[in-house]
């Protein structure tokens, strides 16, 4: 969370000028602070919207980081500009109470804008929000039969998504994938408005299919030991993030669900016939391309797909016990693993991913 690349020191001339008078105090010329900031992490908040009998919940884990114009807290130990991290924590709860919570992105924008509007000495606010995946309990999940035995004619249907009646105020934790966002709002020279960057992501979307995945015709040299694989198990854990160029017209929650559905569709294909994957790279690219095709507000998308290997257990030495070939029993191996990633962007656009 909040990982940023190391910034290169400025040129010698700029460094000398900066070190001569920083916040009114002489600083060692051979050193300068090239990046700084502070904040509160892992602020947990649950918001309940009560509209008649139907309640809606949002549970977040929020991080708020601020960057001040001054560095006197570092150089001089002067805390007069510091908005305490405990105050930042309180702000999360107070704004949730005052304005409610609609989506992680909108709440992060609200927090970031508040810190810049409230405190003129704050140069930048970075808000990170992770969403806890609560979904409404469905009718079939509450109609438990007292006479049936699980697996023996039970009428409960825990997987069907058709014609289900959603519960008004009961929820179930469904950690299929994590929805998170990062919002960075940076003050600019007047009269320009603060620059805002909104990045949304999916983390930990684990998928597997048992056929229609191949990997053949790759480099064949003296280092190769892997044979061509014409039909293999394909499993991965998708991490994906994308940046919005337009935040005024986008429905953040719907867009997140669209991206997730696009990834699953390109991975799995039609429920009856599936879809062929000649490589992880190709599946990844098709998913990213379709996101840019379908959601015009997304300017750039980045995706990582590490291989989760399932190797065939060799039964050849055990033909007296299990004669014939084995295509049913596999050994899960997660280390070492291949990692495939790519970033796809609309042309002539700068990205913060």
Automatic annotation (TrEMBL):
SUPFAM superfamilies: Tetrahydrobiopterin biosynthesis enzymes-like (SSF55620). Keywords: Oxidoreductase, Peroxisome, Purine metabolism. Urate binds at residues 85-86, 215, 232, 280-281, 307. The active site is at 40 (charge relay system), 85 (charge relay system), 309 (charge relay system). Gene3D superfamilies: Urate Oxidase (3.10.270.10). 5-hydroxyisourate binds at residues 85-86, 215, 232, 280-281, 307. Pfam families: Uricase. Its EC number is 1.7.3.3. It catalyses: urate + O2 + H2O = 5-hydroxyisourate + H2O2. One of its GO terms (biological process) is purine nucleobase catabolic process. O2 binds at residues 85, 307. CDD domains: Uricase. GO terms for cellular component: peroxisome. The keyword DNA-binding does not apply. One of its GO terms (molecular function) is urate oxidase activity. Pathway: Purine metabolism; urate degradation; (S)-allantoin from urate: step 1/3. Residues 1-22 are annotated as: Disordered. InterPro entries: Uricase, Uricase_CS. It is found in: Peroxisome. Belongs to the uricase family. This is Uricase. It comes from Drosophila madeirensis (Fruit fly).
């Amino acid at each position: 969370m909040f990982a940023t690349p190391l910034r290169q020191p400025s040129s010698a001339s700029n460094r000398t000028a900066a070190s001569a008078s920083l916040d009114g105090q002489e600083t060692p010329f051979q050193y300068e602070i090239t990046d700084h900031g502070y904040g509160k992490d892992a602020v947990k908040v649950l918001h309940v919207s009560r509209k008649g009998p139907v309640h809606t919940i949002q549970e977040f884990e929020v991080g708020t980081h601020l960057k001040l114009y001054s560095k006197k807290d570092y150089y001089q130990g002067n805390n007069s500009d510091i908005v305490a991290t405990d105050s930042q924590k309180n702000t999360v709860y107070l704004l949730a109470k005052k304005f409610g919570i609609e989506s992680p992105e909108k709440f992060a924008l609200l927090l970031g804008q508040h810190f810049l509007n409230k405190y003129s000495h704050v140069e930048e606010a970075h808000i990170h929000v992770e969403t806890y995946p609560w979904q409404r309990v469905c009718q079939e999940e509450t109609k438990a039969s007292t006479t049936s035995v699980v697996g023996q004619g039970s009428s409960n249907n825990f997987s069907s998504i058709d014609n289900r009646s959603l519960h008004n105020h009961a929820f179930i934790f469904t950690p299929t994938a994590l929805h998170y966002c990062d919002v960075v709002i940076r003050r600019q020279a007047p009269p320009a408005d603060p620059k805002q960057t909104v990045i949304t992501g999916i983390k930990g979307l684990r998928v597997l299919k048992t056929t229609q995945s191949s990997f053949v015709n790759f480099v064949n040299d003296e280092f190769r030991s892997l044979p061509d694989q014409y039909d293999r198990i394909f499993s991965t854990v998708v991490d994906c993030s994308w940046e919005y160029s337009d935040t005024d017209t986008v429905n953040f929650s719907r867009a997140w669900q669209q991206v997730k559905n696009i990834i699953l569709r390109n991975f799995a294909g039609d429920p009856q016939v599936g879809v062929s994957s000649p490589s992880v790279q190709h599946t990844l690219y098709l998913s990213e391309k379709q996101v840019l095709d379908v959601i015009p507000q997304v300017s750039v998308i980045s995706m990582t797909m590490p291989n989760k290997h399932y190797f065939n257990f060799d039964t050849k030495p055990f033909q007296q016990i299990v004669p014939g070939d084995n295509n049913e029993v596999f050994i899960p191996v997660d280390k070492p693993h291949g990692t495939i990633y790519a970033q796809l962007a609309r042309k002539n656009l700068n990205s913060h991913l």
